Amino acid sequence: MANKNYYEILGLSKTATSDEIKSAYRKLAKQYHPDFHPGDAAAAEKFKEINEANAVLSDEQKRKQYDYELEHPGMGGNPFGGGNPFGGGMGGFEDIISSMFGGGNPFGGGFGGGEQKRPNRGADIEQTVNLSFLDAIKGCSKEISYTRNEPCTACRGTGAKGGNSFKVCSCCGGSGRIKYQQDTIFGRTIQVGVCPDCGGTGRQVLDKCPDCKGKGYFKKETRFTVNIPAGVDKDSSLRKRGFGQAAPNGGEAGDLYIYFRIEPHKLLRREDRDLFVTVPISYRTAVQGGKIIVPGVEDTIELNVPECTASGTKFCIRGKGVKTVNGTGNLYVTVEIDIPAKLSREQLRRLNDFESSVQLKSCDNMLKYSNNISAVYGRRIDKQ
Ligand SMILES: [Zn+2]
Ligand SMILES: [Zn+2]
C-alpha cells in the first residue's frame, strides 16, 4: 500500500492537518465524482484513489501506520526477493463497494474473481451491520467490533523477532517452491509445489518474536469506525482489505467483508434507486385538488394533487429517490381515496343529495363505461 503516495494524491504535504485533509478530499471528490464523468474510466480510477487516500489519512491510527510504512519503504516487502508471498504486510486500507445497483460498479472489478487465492493468506471474515432505512440512503458511520487474529505489529505477523530474524529455508533454498517428479501415463513430469517446510515463505524463523511468542498474531477485538457511503442496499458489501484473519508466516491477512441488514421504513419502500409510497387522500382533495404532504428522504415534501384525480393515480417526483454514484432515483407517490368508515344518518342523506345532483354526462369514465355496456350488451345503465 505504501507504493501509492496518499499525500500526493490529495495534493497535501505530510504535515497536513485533519481539516486540510478533509477539505482537500471534499474538493477532489466533487471534481472527480463519477456523476460528472459518466463512462470515464480514468476519472473513476482517480475517484477511487482519492477515496482510498482519504480513508487512510482521515483515520488517525491508519495514518500513523501509513506514515511509518512511508518512512520505512520495503518493510512490507520480501527480504529474500523472488516470488514468495511475503508481501502486502498488514494489507491496505481499501474500501470497495461492490454489487451496488447491479453491474454498474464504477470502481470496476476489485471483488472476487480477479484475485488469486494465495496459499499463505489469512481467511476472510464477514460481518453484518444493521442500518436504518434512511442511514442506508444517506450514508453514515458505524462502529464495527469483532474478534480476529490480528497480525503482531512487532514482527509484522512473521513470528520472527523484529520481523527479520530469519534464515533462508534450507528445504527450498528461499524460493518457497519445490520441484518434484511425478510419473503419469504420459511419462515423467516435473511439478512445482509450495515448500512444505516454510509454507512458501522461503525462510525459517531463527529467533521467535517475544511479543507473540512466534505465533505472528494475537487474538484480539478489532474495533474501528467505517464510513458507509450513501445509497448502500441489502445486496451491497464493503471490503476492508487486511482486516480479516492474520495469515501464518507473515502472509497477507484476509479481508473483512461488511454486509448490511436494512430495517424497513414506516412509510417508504425502496427498489434500487427508486422510492415508493402510498398516501391516503380525502374524496374532496381528489375532486378539488390540493397540496398534500408526502414523506421524503431529508424531510416531508409538498405534492400538488390536481383536481379530478382518480384513486390509485401514481405521481413521480423526479430526483427525490436514492442518490447513488450511478445517479439518483425518483419518488413515486400513489394516492388512494380514503373512504370514511362511519357516517351519520345526516351525512349519508347529504351524500345522497349530492350524488343525485351529479349527472352521468359529467362523469367521464362512468359515461364511457355506460356507453360500452350499451354497445356490447344492448343494455343502458345509469350512474352506479
Ligand atoms: Zn522452504
Ligand atoms: Zn510477533
Folded structure, characterized:
This protein is α+β, with helices and mostly antiparallel strands and 384 residues long. The chain folds into 3 domains: 1-73, Helix Hairpins (Orthogonal Bundle); 74-262, Sandwich (HSP40/DNAj peptide-binding domain); 269-377, HSP40/DNAj peptide-binding domain (Sandwich). Helix content is 23%, strand content 28%. The protein is built from 8 helices and 18 strands. It has helices at 6-9, 18-32, 41-57, 60-71, 133-138, 283-288, 345-357, 364-377, and strands at residues 95-98, 125-131, 140-151, 166-168, 177-184, 187-194, 203-205, 217-228, 237-240, 256-262, 269-271, 274-281, 290-295, 300-305, 314-317, 323-324, 327-328, 331-337. The strands form 7 sheets. It has a 4-stranded mixed sheet with strand order 1-9-10-2. Strands 11-12-18-15 form a 4-stranded mixed sheet. A two-stranded antiparallel sheet has the order 3-8. Strand 5 and strand 6 form a beta hairpin. The longest helix has 17 residues, at 41-57. The chain starts with 5 loop residues before the first helix and ends in a 7-residue tail after the last helix. Residues 74-118 have low confidence and may be disordered. Residues 152, 154-155, 159, 209, 211-212, 216 line the site of one zinc ion.
Concise structural overview:
With 384 residues, the protein is α+β, with helices and mostly antiparallel strands.
